[in-house]
Structure formats: C-alpha cells, structure tokens
C-alpha cells in the first residue's frame, strides 16, 4: 500500500495518481484525496476523465444523467470544503485551480491514518517485524496515540514499547510515527531469528495460515 499520494499535473491531465480506497470515504474525503498535495484544474475534478478518478467517484458505469448528478454533488462538496477553509482556489492563465490548504492537508492525513490497514502477502517469509520506541514523557500524548494505533493495526505487544508483526510494514510505521512527529524515537527492524516465538505464532495463527 502506498501512503504517499503522487499527483503530477501536466497539460491539464493527471500523469500519476495513487489514491487509497475505502468504502467509508464520503464524497468530501474523496475530493480531498483527489486533490492531494498538488494543484488541480477545477474542471478536471468536477468532470473527471481519467480511469482512477472515475473509479474514485463511482462514475465508471454511470450514464449521462447519473454523471451530471455526481458532478453537482462534487461541486457542492468543493464548496463545503472551501467554506471550511480546507481548500483554496486561484486563477492562472485564465483557468481555475484548486489546492488543499494547510488545514486540508492535515485533514487528509487524518483520513489516511483512519483508513490505514496492513497488507498481507500470499506467504510469510518467516521474519518478525519489530517496532521499538522510547518516546520522552513530554511527548506522552503522541506516545499513547502511537501505541493505540499499533494495537489497532494488529501488532502484538511484547512490552509496552515493543511491538511485533509478521509482515513487512516499514512504510506504514514511518507514516504513523511521522504523523505523530515522533519518528526520531521509533525504530523498526526485521528479525530473522526470535527466541521462542511460539506465543507470536499462536497469536498470529490466522494471519500466518
């Protein structure tokens, strides 16, 4: 799973889009995801023509009338986001662009964190992924938030600040630790050997099958 959305605007078209998908995303969240960290032509967003944007807005098989209704809903969502100062618009060379504000970028990161899941490969490679952190007391809230999210993602707590997981998840750990601004206090490594990992194998038996 890619956590960094890549948007390149070239001659009014998306060159690359990598958007996290989730059935729980409401339209406003999808609009934020489509804009990402770059500036987007408003006409391209309201009338999406790329395959990934059509898929994101559930317009792949929509007929003309359904597409018109969806475009109207997208425009209303954009207006709500603008009213809440999550997006800003500006004109350049006679065309209207839309981009996320700082608040909008923070909101998008929150949505990404909420929808973050760890992917399971087809086969376990026999290695354990260990996350260790030593976060100062002055960052207590961030430390507890990190610990909570490790539990939520399915990690097994070996100790209060040591967690284990069977599959590769470095990108996800980097994202979560940077989200809470504690990346300098978090270490991730892979263990080829783990003394008596029977308890871990029992805990993750459903994932390892």
UniProtKB/TrEMBL annotation:
It holds the Pfam family PaaX_M. GO terms for molecular function: RNA endonuclease activity. InterPro entries: CRISPR_associated_Cas2, PaaX-like_central. GO terms for biological process: DNA-templated transcription; maintenance of CRISPR repeat elements. Keywords: Antiviral defense, Endonuclease, Hydrolase, Magnesium, Membrane, Metal-binding, Nuclease, Transmembrane, Transmembrane helix. Residues 122-197 form the Transcriptional repressor PaaX-like central Cas2-like domain. The chain crosses the membrane at residues 31-51. PANTHER family: PHENYLACETIC ACID REGULATOR-RELATED TRANSCRIPTIONAL REPRESSOR, TRANSCRIPTIONAL REPRESSOR PAAX. NCBIfam families: cas2. This is CRISPR-associated endonuclease Cas2.
């Amino acid at each position: 799973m890619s956590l960094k959305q890549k948007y390149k605007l070239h001659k009014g078209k998306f060159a690359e889009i990598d958007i996290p998908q989730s059935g729980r995303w409401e339209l406003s969240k999808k609009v934020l995801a489509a804009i990402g960290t770059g500036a987007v032509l408003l006409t391209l967003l309201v009338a999406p023509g790329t395959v990934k944007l059509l898929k994101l807005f559930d317009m792949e098989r929509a007929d003309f009338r359904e597409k018109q209704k969806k475009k109207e809903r997208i425009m209303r969502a954009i207006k709500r986001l603008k009213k809440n100062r999550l997006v800003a618009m500006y004109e350049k060379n006679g065309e209207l662009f839309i981009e996320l504000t700082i608040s909008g970028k923070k909101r998008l990161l929150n949505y990404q964190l909420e929808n973050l899941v760890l992917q399971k490969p087809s086969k376990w490679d026999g290695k354990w992924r260990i996350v260790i952190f030593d976060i100062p007391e002055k960052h207590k809230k961030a430390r507890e938030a990190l610990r909570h999210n490790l539990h939520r993602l399915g990690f097994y707590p070996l100790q209060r600040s040591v967690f284990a997981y069977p599959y590769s998840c470095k990108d996800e750990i980097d994202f979560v630790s940077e989200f809470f601004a504690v990346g300098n206090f978090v270490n991730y490594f892979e263990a080829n050997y783990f003394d008596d990992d029977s308890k871990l194998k029992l805990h993750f038996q459903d994932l390892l099958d």
